[in-house]
Every structure is written in C-alpha cells, then in structure tokens.
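Quick start: what a row looks like.
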Amino acid sequence: MIILVINCGSSSIKYQLLDMKSDDVYDVIAKGIAEKIGLPEGILQYAPAGREKIVRDLPIPDHKVGMQLILEALTGENGVLKSLEDIDAVGHRIVQGGDFFSSSAIVNDDVLSKIEFCCDFAPLHNPAHLLGIHAIQDVLPKVPQVVTFDTAFHQTMPPYAYMYALPYEYYEKFRVRRYGAHGTSHQYVAEQGALLAGLDINNSKIITCHIGAGSSVCAIQNGKCIDTSMGFTPLEGMIMGTRVGNIDANAVLYLMKKLGCSADEMSTILNRKSGFMGLTGKTSDARELMDLANEGDPKAKLVLHKLNYDVIKLIGQYAAAMNGVDLICFAGGIGEHNGRFRRRVLENFSYLGLKVDYEANNAAWEANTIISAPDSAVKAALICTNEELVIARDTMHLVSGK
C-alpha cells in the first residue's frame, strides 16, 4: 500500500511517501518538506530514495499550493510515482485530539469537527493540520485519509495524573486537563526500546525522553502511559527551544500587569520568546547552544544545566511513581545526537544501579543502541524515533479494515 504521510505546521509541510508491505516490511520511496508557506520566498525540498535531493526556491502562497507542489514532485520528471492514482491513502499527524480520541481515525465530518474544537488547545498546530487535510481533499478527493493524534497514547493516564486542581466545573465545561504530546513518538520509542533491551513491554517500567526543540518525558508502565510532562498544551513541562516549561501561574499574571500585555501577547512570550531563546537571548537551536557553551557563554551553560536538571527531575519523579524503572530511552534531536547530555542525565541514577557504557554512548549514532553497561541494573537506550512509520502503519490498518 502506497501511503503519503503528512505533517503540517503553520508554515511548512513535512512529508514521506512509503510503500507499506506489512508493519515491519516497507520502503521509504521519497521524503521532503515545503517550507516558508505564505512568505514571499518558499522552499520545496524533495528527496527520492537513492537519488540526489532537489531543492527549489519558489513562492508557496498557501497549504493547498504546497500540497500541489509536493504531488507534482512525486509524479513529475524526477518523480517516483506514475500518477496520483498510485497513492492508496494519506496519513496525517495531529497534535491535539483532546479526550475524543484514544487511537487513530479515518477522516470524516465528525472527526474534522472534533479536531477543529481542539484548535484552542493547540492554536499553533491544529489549524495547520486542518489546512493539510482540506488541501488533500481538494487535490485527491477520492483518497481515504487517516489522522493519528499526539495525545491518543496519553489517554491511559489516570485522572489523578491528568487533572488540574482547578474548580471541577472548568473540566466539565471547557475540558481543561492535561493531555500531553509527542505520544506517537513515546509509543514507538518504548516499543523499540523494549525490543532492543529484551523486555516484555507488557510487563515493564519504561521512561522515554523525547528531547529536542520541543521536549517531553513519559512514564510507561506495562505498555501504557501513566504520566507525561506536557499538559493542557505543549507548553507545560521542561525547558524547550522557545517554550518556558513549568512556571508559577502568578508569575505570569504579575508580568502581564508589569508589561501591560494582553493574553495573546503573553502567549507569544511564553511559547515563542522563552526557553533556550529567552535565557540566552541568542538562539533556540541546540547545536548553536552547544557552540556558545563551548565558547564560554555563561547563559548558554545555564540553559544546558537547566535542560539536564529538568530531565533528571522528571525521570526521578516517574521512577518513584512506578516504584522502579527497567529502561530509560532517549529520542528526538537532542536525545539522539548529544552524548554529553545523555551521560550527564544517566550518571545521576547510579543509586538505582544504572551504569553507563561510555563507549557506546559516545559512538557516532548509526542505529538503535543500548548505552548502559552489560551489568547495569537499569538499562538505557538511544532510539531513533519514527513517527511517520507509526502513522503509516495506522493508516494501512484502518484503510484495509484491519
């Protein structure tokens, strides 16, 4: 089954075209991204498997045009498809599904209305996802579409983990509760980590750390999420590229009074001007952050210490909540590519009997790897997350009626 996987952002469309033969037998035929949508100068990247990547600079006024350009690239002179009729289904990543969805779903009017209802919970993401779905409906009206939700995996959290101690009526009227995010990644990483470590995922205690520009940590007991660090929106939790993470709500109210800013202006500060960017005043990029720290920049060093500290605290909390941990996994841009970060986190859990395999941890990343010593009481692993594969699998199952 030929499946096009779409991940729409507010100004971008990431895509992968996969030939799914089964859950574990597949080929990535092509992938790429349409960037700077709506800006004067857009960028279309197209990388067919086994061939050189093609980059085009051209205007991409909206998501519909972006989708048309992607489909033209897939079927054009350097295309990998004979025609659009070769596409059997399209799968979409959706950040926020509220408590409506505990699994993926085939797109219909009811599903679309619920995604739209959740736009207030993820205003930077869900509207863009809807644009992507509607763009496919316009271009490929007969092709079935499936949506996979970042929040679905976290629907197994118990009420005492997902409820805020606000008046209960706010939950009943406005659905204010913790939903989490990165669920598709956490689920995949836990499954692959358990397989690599020789654990039965249905009889295990696993902590997954998806660390990048957006970051979250998840406690997974017997294959089910029991807690995660992101909350009502992806803002809650640890320090991130531009997001503040946990903050006293009264500090927010205090700043709004001092700055005389509106709720929307404060939202921009908390979501786009804080985190790595806010503390350094220079960058939200982890690679640039490392360079600054190596050059002796004190604020960059502060950010890296806080990043490590936040993850250490979350792992400690979740190990306590599960009364132990069998496996700690790292994924995401920072989690996968920064050995120093992983080492500094893991060395704090020697009291649990965790021993780091420094050679494995420092080696250049090539494949999923155990980075704990053979005699370590707690295992640790580096896992390359693959959200696109999870989406493609779910799409294949739903469209084929399985």
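That is the whole record. DSSP finds 15 helices and 14 strands in the chain. The chain has a mean pLDDT of 94.
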